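If your schedule permits, I should be very grateful for your opinion on a structural question. Thank you for your consideration; the sequence and its tokens are set out here:

===
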Amino acid sequence: MTKELKVENLRRECDPDQFDFETTEELEPLREIIGQDRALDAIRLGLGVKDERNRYNIYVAGQSGTGKTSAVDHFLKRVSKEEETPPDICYVHNFSDPDKPRYLAFPAGEGTEFREDMQSLVDHLDDGVSETFESQEYKERKSKIDREFNERKKQLFGRLEEEAESRGFILQRTPFGLNTVPRTEDGQPMGQEQFQQLSEEEREELEKSQEELQELVQETMQEVMELEEERNEKMRELNKEAVSFLLDPVISKLRSKYDESEKVLEYLDEVEEDILENIENFTEDQGGQNLPPALSNAMQEQDKFKKYRVNVFIDNSEGEGAPVVMQQNATYPNLFGSVEKKAQFGMMSTDFTMIKPGALHKANGGYLVLKASNLFRYGLSWEGLKAALNCGEIKIEDPAQMLGYSSTKGLRPEPIPLDIKIVLIGNRRIYHLLNRFEEDFPKLFNIKADFEPDMDREKKQEEQVAQFIASQSRNNSEVKDFHKSGVAKLVDVVSTMARDKEKLSAQFSEITEVIKESSYWAEEAEEEFVKREHVEKAIEEKIERRSMIKDRIQEMIDRDKIMIDTEGEEVGQITGLSVLDSGDFTFGKPSRITANVYAGKEGVVNIEREADLSGNTHTKGIMILKGYLGQKFAYDKPLSLTANIAFEQSYSMIDGDSASSTELYAILSSLADLPVKQGIAVTGSVNQKGELQPIGGAKEKVEGYFDTCKAKGLTGEQGVMLPQKNVDNLMLNDEVIEAVDKDQFHIYPVEKISEGIEILTGVPAGVERKNGKYEEGTVFAKVDQRIREIGEALNGGAKEEDEEE
């Protein structure tokens, strides 16, 4: 007896009266993630386990729109508030190696204070040095040093002059030093002619005395230089004493304020030492008089106190708990920071104040969320992240140098210790590829939180859908609250998205779209609440927007450009059903499948495969048909035949095994020479035992074929035959259900091939007897007889060839 599905089997509808509210305005907004208990438990574990080696990072896997990002954001905001705020990080000048700026860590909020304190020190120094050096006391002590120096210098030159005079010479000062010139009896410098008039003995005596006197001059000049050094040293000591008197109170105050950090105290010692060693930088003109005006002005504008300023690299002064950073574009500079450069004097220059942080720095001590598809688009970013997690520190490097390319010498900031938890959000395919081919990935990402695409359809979940609507209404003024009839319809829509009566879709991004569009149509109708008809309107309009390709294909079927029969009977010809995906819309498409059987030894020939248009799964389905035919009909004879199977008017790749039962029915029809009802379309996968297996897209296939039958004219004899196990996947639209209710369209659930062939041919399939034969007049008996005849024909032909030879 042929089984048909009744109307109540074609869809599960939510009853609005089951709800205890009239509108979602009465409900509390949803404050939890629906139907993802397994994934949420994994996230809790990943966030709860603290590991000093940065190993317990989390990979959140699942389809787009299942609420992965929202769930991660929800958990991180809650967990992070309970944790300590990480320290501020400041970069400062490294006095021993300027190319390697040092970092200083401060409790949250103190980094900015330290910068302001150092700025106060600089301001105090800038203002105070000038005042100190202009003070009366300083001038008097400086004058005293100068007087002492001048007096001693005068004594040295006086003694030298006396010695020169005693030897008969005059000292002459020139730009190149002191010259000794013989003098005449009247005290005047001796000329060359006068010198030549002297006797040879007198000249030799003068030359000898001059040499001795020149040595004395050199000794005196050496003493003067030593005296100048002594004077300069006294001036340096005076300047140090003056500046120290100015600087000590400020430095002492800073040392007292930051006495808990040895690194800061060490830095302050270096600052004080550098200032006292370079006092002239604050008191003398830095030059530029002989340079072009533009260059001279630029030099004058340079910050002579830059070495003592502070770059507040990370400021957590306004943070509450651990930081949470979501980086959408994970380029290397965005993750690891950079050292910026500027053009100056015709070349690029940089300094420690131009070091900029990346997302890793900002999230250090907290959580960094990255999109896997974006991160792995930049190979260098993953390599850098992997190195940072393994080493436990963040290095700011030039990407070119990291890749091994030569580049100009730049700053190499001191690496910062890394304490972070990474949350990667992506699909399962990326996870499996990384887990298999990237050896460091399983060690670094120990936790996988897998989000499911759907959830069980129970009353609790249906009520949570209503709360989700309430959440959307509270968070978006453009979204209206729903009447309970609208909620019930939305629940049905969500179940339809899941393609299962017992499930609800977890694609919340798509559900949100429906909510917003339903609100729009309620607003257009000037209704206060969204009702059933508004949700229906939103779905209709959505299908209309996206169904252009489906409509074009249907038009070609209507005009017989694509040949599909919905009436009559044909041998070896049957309508199969497939699903096409246009990206944002899936729909069912009927296809004519034909099978021709004749004498031969090739077996079942897949024409699509011969034309390189068959995918692996489709090819596997064809091979299963051979197993079924062999098991069923090769009990007492070889399976000698050739059966060509083709998808007519198909010119692209075909994959999947959902048409394998359809192909088998076509072969059986051709072998038995029994016509098949063309009004019944077929879908379903078959195994070697002849059992129908569930397939995907059952709803789309049924509705797609119904549209074709409706366009060509419903006769009351049309319908779809599908696996019994797909009945739960049916959430059919009102039009199909109405046609079934009026007995204009039929849906047949089938468990075995024997049931299906009876529906298609109207002839009993036949039961196998103990001798391997089948009841006379049945489908299988006719098939068995045809296979036997083909075998005998082949054997007979072979005997005739042997006799002729």
Observations:
- Residues 125 and 247 are 7 Å apart (CA to CA).
- The chain has four domains: 13-35+452-546, 68-73+78-85+319-450, 130-283, 563-796.
- The first strand starts at residue 58 and ends at 61.
